[in-house]
Amino acid sequence: MALRLSVKPLPDLVAVVLWMAGALLSFSTTAIAVRELAPALGLFDILAARAAAGVAIVGAVALLRRRPLPARRMPLHLARNLVHWGGNYAWSYGVTLLPLAVVFALEFTTPAWVTLLAVLILRERLTASRLAAVSLGFLGVLVVLRPGLAALQPASLVVLLSAVMFALTAVATKALTRTESVLSILFWMNLIQLPLNLVAGRLFPGLPAHAFEGRHALALAAVCLAGLTSHWCLTSAYRRGDAILVMPLDFLRIPLIAVLGWQLYGETLDPWLFVGAGLIVGGIVWNLAAEARRQAPAPVAEEAAKGA
Q: Domain limits of the chain?
């Protein structure tokens, strides 16, 4: 008797990784573009342009595909986007004042909050590997920051507040994916946040230090496009995997943005950053391997007939 192992591909796990790769690139592009635009446009104006582009692009896609965009759970849409709007502003404010790697490292307290909220609110299962991924990721963030590296600056506290807001947003997004399409979530996100940014921009106008130039137009286009694709990719990842699986993958933004900040702005490439990143990646690999084992079908024993 011979045993033949029947192993199927893991489409959900692979899809989560690919969608998150798109999200990592998009969020990093957004951070760089916001920093380039900040001297010429107020933050609320930048966010308003991003939301307007999102409404136009998602609306056009839905029209071409003849997809309705219902909001079956409007109270949750409103709550999610009010919190996300505040988090977006706080994060963008931090990007203009702090080194990019520090902003992302502070933001990555988010998975710890997501894990807690996903277990309490979404009733997701907290496995040992998921807990390890978040714990190692959080430990990696502490190694990156180290006591006194910028943690007491007011801008750092603002970014930490944005991390809590993003955690609430992540849990609300996962809840919405159970009944709403990705297009619907993105459309209502931008439609709700557009008037908030327009009103806030008039009440708290920015004071640009430089005139708007051609290079700023390119950065504005990048904000509009990457701001949309980042949430498209992230929301799609939530549709294919649990929030506790998706969020630790986002830790990879820290080493990526650190290298970009070093290349583009001459920011210090701290060796401790890569020690922390090693802990982060170790936790991610551990969790992905465990998720692959959990999703893989059990071996199927087939009797091979050999002769009569």
A: 13-204+217-294
The number of beta carbons lying within 10 Å of the beta carbon of residue 226 is 23
Chain centroid to Cα 192, Å, comes to 19
Tell me the C-alpha to C-alpha distance, in Å, between residue 156 and each of 102, 106, 278: 8, 7, 23
* Least confident residue range of 12-16, 22-26, 66-70: 12-16
This prediction has a pTM of 0.72
**Close Cβ partners of 48 (under 8 Å, ≥ 6 residues apart):** 194, 197, 198, 201
How far apart CA 131 and CA 136 sit, in angstroms, is 9
Per residue in 242-251, pLDDT tens?
A: 766 676 677 6
